Amino acid sequence: PGAAREERVQRAGQGLDEPCPLWWQQLQRAWDGHAIDTELLDMVGLPPGPERHRLELIGSAITQLPPDQRERVRTALRDQIGDDPGVDGLSREELGELAAGGFELGCHTARHDFLPLLTLEQLDESVRSGRDEVEEVAGRPVRVFAYPSGGWDATVRDAVERAGYSAAFTAHAG
Q1: Which 3-state string (H, E, C) describes 48-115?
Q2: In sequence order, which residues have a C-beta less than 8 Å from that of residue 64 and are 6 or more positions away?
Q3: Are 133 and 99 in contact (CB under 8 A)?
Q4: How many CB atoms lie within 10 A of CB 95?
Q5: Contact 52/58 with Cβ under 8 angstroms?
Q6: Is the dihedral of CA 173, 126, 140, 101 positive or negative?
Q7: Predicted confidence band at 79 (pLDDT cuts at 50, 70, 90)?
Q8: Which helix or strand (DSSP H or E) is residue 146 part of?
Q9: Which of 42, 48, 70, 132 meets the CB 3.0–4.6 Å disulfide criterion with 65?
């Protein structure tokens, strides 16, 4: 009687073959280890004052950075806290098992860029990044997309449509 239920899995990261800690994982480790210093806060662009020491504010500021600056922050965090032995994320094999089990794999970009901040060229590249790899693992086309950090506007929506996705999701209403 029951119809097949389709499940979706989104994956972000710089590649499926090697672990790549995401900046928010590094930020949480730095926060937990009291390793966030004035130099990092200045790099993120937060003005002096007690508010700059709130984790949510730091995370929001990093999300809004252009990709090259965010990468510098990620590198600075890694330099402060070292490599992360317990990187979260799914391997190529684990994703393949999910796809074989009926899950639909979706794309979420390879670098988790905040898409509304990108140039049109960067935007088109970002929404396509990582898709070929996921399609190879899934053995079928990737049709769904999730906007990193929920960031989208009409220009981003149009880029996702140009890239051939049939559906896109955000964590924010609208």
Answers
A1: CCHHHHCHHHHHHHHHCCCHHHHHHHHHHHHHHHCCCCCCCCCCHHHHHHHHHCCEEEEECCCCCCCH
A2: 114, 117
A3: no
A4: 20
A5: yes
A6: negative
A7: confident
A8: strand 144-146
A9: 70
Please report how the helices 23-32 and 67-81 are oriented relative to each other, as an axis angle in degrees rounded to 10.
40
The packing angle between helices 154-162 and 120-128, to 10°, is 50
Per-residue buried b or exposed e for 126-147, using 16+ beta carbons within 10 Å of the residue's own CB? bbbbbbebbbebbeeebbbbbb
Query: Identity (one letter) of the amino acid at 167?
Result: A
Per-residue confidence band for 19, with pLDDT thresholds at 50, 70 and 90? low
Residue count (the chain): 174
Amino acid (1-letter code) at residue 24: W
